Amino acid sequence: MDLKKFLNDRKKLIDETLEKIIPPENTFPPNIHKAIRYSLLGGGKRIRPILTLSAHELVGGDYKSILPFACGIELIHTYSLIHDDLPAMDNSDLRRGKPSTHKVFGEAIAILAGDALLTLAFQIMTDLNLFNDYKPITILKAVHIIAKAAGLEGMIGGQTVDIETQGDAFDLPLLEYIHTHKTGALILGAIKAGAILGDAGEEELAALTKYGETVGLTFQIIDDILDIEGTKKALGKSTGLDMVQDKATYPRLLGLEAARKRAKELTEQAERALDIFNHQKAEPLKQIARYICERIQ
Ligand code: GRG
Questions:
Q1: pLDDT grade, residue 238 (50/70/90)?
Q2: What is the atom index within ligand 1 of the atom nearest the CA of 220?
Q3: What spacing in Å lies between the alpha carbon of 163 and ligand 1's midpoint?
Q4: Domain boundaries, the chain
């Protein structure tokens, strides 16, 4: 399997769907619509919706019928990036290779664009068209998973602890709470929602949950490593912020080498979790796990 082509093809489909589901630029009021399009389109790896589509396919679903739902998760992710870049949060000037949303549109519009993306995501994930192909209870369960992942029990919980513990001494349990919630929860939620929409059986869902937990944590460990080793140009965002902001990160607790080793161990666990599936069908998710561990941008 050619992973690069697979990711590019899926990204293209996701980008086309995003373009269809968000309002045109000239919609009134213009500034917020411009800000939404600026932050959402033309950048981003789209890894979360790709994971949703792949988990859905792995349990026998047709990924094309959940494209808008998967894009809803990308909207939530983009909102989190806009808010994360604000001066009150990470205070970052660069995102996806461009000036951050608040740098171009001002803080008020950036906050509102984030809020609008979050609510629009739930509007899209509950669009009536989805009810032609999926049972209401299945859609409800998938939306519930995403709400939990994005909210207090997930991303917001993690972000809160991340911010409130800056400058403090930290240990592994605190670090893993931050990572599994701030970043891991939405990645895990994206995978579980795809599986649930595909009517995954209990064993399948447990395997994909283990996969999602390990891949989600790996994603943030690598993000921490790239904050030290990566370049602004390749990443399209500012680097070195973790050290300046005195943040709890894997490399700071364990050192770079041990952080990489932990990411590799987790990736092996992620791949093993998928052993219950047909080898060929599980290949995309296995390769995505390796890509997350080895990514350089
Ligand atoms: C509600 C005010 C308010 C703020 C919320 C929840 C939140 C702020 C921020 C979420 C935390 C966050 C942004 C975590 C970082 C996750 C991460 C590694 C982002 C980068 O993801 P990639 O590499 O980015 O997938 P692209 O650009 O490829 O989509």
A1: confident
A2: 18
A3: 13
A4: 3-296
